[in-house]
Specification:
alpha+beta; Endonuclease, Chain A; 10 strands
Length: about 250
């Protein structure tokens, strides 16, 4: 029985009140409150909730407010009304979903986080970047070549031909100098870090996400943060470092 009332949207006290009313019949709120062992003020609140669920009716007699349950035979009609309301809500949600998603992309505070572990999963992350219009990255070519040689020229092979642009700040090494000599262009620019400055992970910054790629001796993983505000902050930091390397 409790499961039924829970599915009707009632909490424990609302259920107890409804069952008490079924037994007592029409009663003043003060009488119901005594039977349920609640203050009258609390009972008025519960009565309003039961009215919202369309499970009770109220009337006045000689200036006293009475409440009573709807006939039990009418409960299926209440459920059907709830179903119609939910269907209308679902249709409205579908209509407004694009607007809600637009707000989520621009105003959300908590970023969506996605973890990808293993070579295949990280490769899919890189492949998802193919249609980005602008990419900024911190990049260690020596480490990347060792771990993911098949994707060493991914930006030049996939992003740039698709009309994208890229700026990369790279660790100064022989691989970096070879990349810069071969791939540097107006749309794909490289700048080298000072000699001796290095890092063992990569960072890729796009319009609405930041991706960190970490390497172990036998393991690779990517963490994506989907947030326009975090991405914008990282681009500001990147631009400042880019200018310092001129």
């Amino acid at each position: 029985m409790d499961e039924l009332f829970a599915r009707l949207g009632l909490n424990e006290k609302e259920t107890e009140t409804f069952r008490t009313l079924l037994s007592l019949g029409a009663q003043p709120v003060s009488v119901i409150a005594k039977h349920v062992h609640l203050p009258r003020s609390s009972m008025y609140f519960i009565v309003e909730k039961l009215k919202e669920h369309r499970l009770i009716e109220e009337f006045e007699r000689t200036g006293i407010r009475y409440v009573k349950c709807i006939p039990v035979r009418d409960l299926p009609d209440v459920v059907k009304a709830q179903q119609r309301g939910m269907q209308q809500t679902l249709e409205l949600l579908r209509e407004k979903l694009p607007q809600l998603q637009a707000l989520e992309n621009t105003l959300t505070v908590t970023p969506k986080v996605k973890l990808s572990e293993g070579m295949d999963a990280v490769m899919k992350v890189y492949e998802s970047l193919a249609h980005e219009k602008q990419i900024y990255s911190y990049f260690n070519p020596a480490v990347f070549m060792k771990m993911m040689p098949a994707y060493a020229t991914f930006i030049s092979d996939a992003v740039i031909p698709a009309g994208g642009k890229a700026k990369e700040i790279v660790v100064d090494c022989k691989e970096a100098r070879a990349y810069k000599k071969k791939f540097h262009s107006k749309n794909h620019q490289y700048r080298l870090l000072p000699a001796g400055v290095t890092f063992l992970s990569d960072c890729i910054i796009c319009k609405d996400r930041v991706c960190f790629v970490t390497y172990g001796e036998k393991q690779i993983a990517a963490i994506e943060l989907f947030s326009t505000t975090l991405a914008a902050t990282q681009r500001v930091i990147f631009d400042q470092m880019w200018k310092s390397l001129e």
